[in-house]
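CO-FOLDING WORKSHEET

Operator: S.A.
Ligand of interest: pyridoxal-5'-phosphate
Run index: 399
Mode: holo prediction, single chain
Checklist:
[x] sequence pasted
[x] SMILES validated
[ ] output reviewed
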Amino acid sequence: MEEISEAVNTAPGVNALQAGVWTRLAKRHGTPLLVLNVRQVRLQYQRLSDALPGVQLYYAVKAFPHPAVITTLAELGCNFDLASSGEVQLMRDARVEAGRCLHTHPIKSDREIRAALAFGCTTFVADNPVEIRKLAQYRNKLNILLRVSFPNPGARCDLSKKFGCAPADVGSLLELAASLKLKVTGMSFHAGSQVPGPEMHVHAINQCIQLLETYREWGKGSLRTLDIGGGFPADYDGQGPDIDDFCKPMREALAGLPTDIRVIAEPGRFLVAAAATALASVIGCAERGGKPWYYLDDGIFGSYNGIVTENARYPLVPLSGEGELRSSVLAGPTCDSFDVLTEDLQLPTLKVGDLVAGLFMGAYTYSTATNFNGLPTARVLVQGLSDLARRKVSGARSR
Ligand SMILES: Cc1ncc(COP(=O)(O)O)c(C=O)c1O
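OUTPUT RECEIVED:
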């Protein structure tokens, strides 16, 4: 992690000033780079907090598991959603208290459970009998949120395909937990990542309200938490709704909850997507099949793997180039033919050393990049850290 001082604006579209700043950074630090502007993270956190008043936010660390993001959000009072012992370690390094963390992975090994318990996590998620039985031996140390499934094929990642119980199975899972003397404290769902609209969140909230009412007396009234998950969309194409408008129907649905129910959410993408810009250099050029091909030093096996795993379409902008625009191919640096970012992007003529910026590259990019072919992943440059966060981040790195 390196910190930079230039003002980097990650709003959509690139003006000459931005292009100049990024070009200087690339020259000084080399590429591939991910320029992370934590000021944008603060702004996103504020926007979502304002749009969901009364909802406690737990940042889904998996989206951009970096000390600069964690310390920045911790400073603002954000809590954290963890899913592995690696993410637990990030909390330890950043000195985030366990009381601010949930463990939300519905399926985990006993070793992972013990690592989270040793840290001090007390809330875990389960969605099936095997998982509930797995947790029973730790009954005195933890409580459970039951994850309910609300499939959403319209989302970029339908997270109810792999996880969650049917609403109709909630009763039998509660009975099983009671028979094992496990405490269930609420319900959770994930309406899908990068959802097209708030409809599935609203449907899930309404269904959970009914379930919470049906089981109101269960466990002496222990069901007191509703976790509405993540899914809040990043505005990749600049056409998306304002987050306040997006959340309005959810606010209205949440107003139907009994007042003694605590509501929490686990946003990942929305908090970080707009905060990072990827900078890659052209490392090779060829003419193939009547089209120019430009090979970059970052690609599908690096920061851009969301293009394949979640059909992401990041805005791609050349920072230089000459001549008329032509339909061009942008490819990544590995030997795999699969490593192609786009086969049809209108680009000027580029040469080796020219730069291409990827906008909205903060979510599931840094965290999912690989070293396939022995190639390095993008280096992270951080901009906008507070003095306190800067001290904590360097402390975390030296421990
Ligand atoms: C359990 C859980 N919570 C929260 C998130 C974050 O979702 P998003 O990035 O769509 O906000 C995810 C994403 O995979 C998840 O699996």
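REVIEW:
Residues 51 and 247 are 6 Å apart (CA to CA).
The first strand starts at residue 2 and ends at 4.
[x] output reviewed
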